[in-house]
Each structure stands twice: as C-alpha cells, then as structure tokens.
Amino acid sequence: MMMETTQNTVNIKTEALKNGLIWGVINIVIFLITWYLMPSLMSSYVYAGITILIGIALAVFFTIDMRKKVGGYWTFGQALWPIFVTFVLAMALVFVFNIVFGKYIDQSYPVKMKELVMTKSEATMKSFGLGDEETAKALAKTQENLDKQFTPSFGQAVMGFGISAIMYFIGAVIFALIFKKNDPNPFSDQKDEHFGTN
Predict the structure, then answer these.
(1) Which residue of 5, 60, 73, 141 has the lowest C-beta tally within 10 Å?
(2) What does the pLDDT read at residue 7?
(3) Which helix (H) or strand (E) holds 140?
C-alpha cells in the first residue's frame, strides 16, 4: 500500500501574519473591556504591568509555536523575520485602532485619558515635592506628549509608528537570539519551504 506523504508545509510567513492578527485582536479586546468597565485603571501601573506580562506571555507562546511548526529548529536569521512580523503587526493593529477609536468611535477616550494621566502626573510630582513652577513646566510637557499620543497629526502618527516599529524590531532581535535553535544534525535537510526559500 502506497502511503501518501503529506508534508506539513507550513508557510511561516502566513503563520506570522495570523499570530500578529490574533495578538492584536486580544490586545484590542483587553483594551475595550478595561475602557468600558474600569476606565480609571488604564492610567495605572497595574494596567501597564498586566498588559506587559500578557504581551510577553503571548510573544513567547507565538515564538515557540512557530518554531515548533517549522520542525523545532531555526537559525537566528530564519527566526527574526517571522517574529518581527508577528510583533509589528500586533502593534500596528492596536496603534491604528487607538487612533480610529478616539477619533471616530468614542471621542471621549482621548479627553478622558488625558485627564486621568494629567491628574496622576500632578499627584506624583507633588509627592516628590516639586515646586509650583517646576510642576507647571513638567505638566505642560506631559500635555504636549499626550496630545501627540492620543490626538496625533498625520506626521506625528507616522513618526510614532516608526519609533514603535524600531523598538519592536529590537525586541524581535532579542527573541530571535533567545529562541533560535540550530539542528544538531549537520546532515539534516532544513525544510526551507517553511521560510519561502529554495
């Protein structure tokens, strides 16, 4: 009986795009739940810490999952691109959604977030014993940064996205270094079809 050989020709680029979409949607769902149920939490260190931990957990999960799907081994060069695509796509979805959400869906979002952050920043500065003049200058700078973050111009949005992409690329480099795994068999034939190369 002739066995039909079904190769698990997973296209890692497709997997990276899928993972980025899933990660982005998860972040958006967390954002919406928090915004509508506990909006005051969004300016807290607790929310920031939770989202960072969830992000790291998802990054590790998707990276290991992609490595497993290409046979359990990949070099640094093979790992870097799919990891970066996953990272930057998730970031891009959230980045665009936040701008669209505040501009077209719920216009109270940027106003409320600025108020929450400004109130928290002022309380923090006063707890450090800053004078009124120093506090006023610091708050003016904070307000300027918040305007760029929540109601950016087109140029500011492009620059913000570019800076974020660079940071996520650095993160992808770190993950590729950590999770690269070379095949110990020097005679094994690396299945390059996973990576779209011949």
Answers:
(1) 5
(2) 37
(3) helix 132-150
Q: Which residues of 182-197 are buried (b: 16+ CB within 10 A; e: fewer)?
A: eeeeeeeebeeebbee
Q: Of 63-77, 89-103, 109-123, 183-197, which gets the smallest average pLDDT?
A: 183-197
Q: Name residues whose C-beta falls within 8 Å of residue 134's C-beta, 6 or more positions apart in sequence.
A: 125
- Interatomic CA distance for residues 167 and 89, integer angstroms: 13
Residue scoring higher pLDDT (164 or 131): 164
Residue 45 has pLDDT above 50, yes or no: yes
Helix pair angle (132-150, 154-179), 10° resolution: 80
Alpha helices in the chain, H assignment, sequence order = 12-37, 45-69, 76-100, 108-127, 132-150, 154-179
Two structure tokens written together for 121:
């920043």
Is-contact 19 66, C-beta < 8 A?
yes
Q: Would you give the distance in Å from CA 30 to the centre of its chain?
A: 13
Q: N- to C-terminal Cα distance for the chain?
A: 31
**126, 135 in Cβ contact below 8 A?**
yes
Other Cβ atoms closer than 10 A to 105: 10
Helix (H, G, I), strand (E, B) or coil at 2: coil
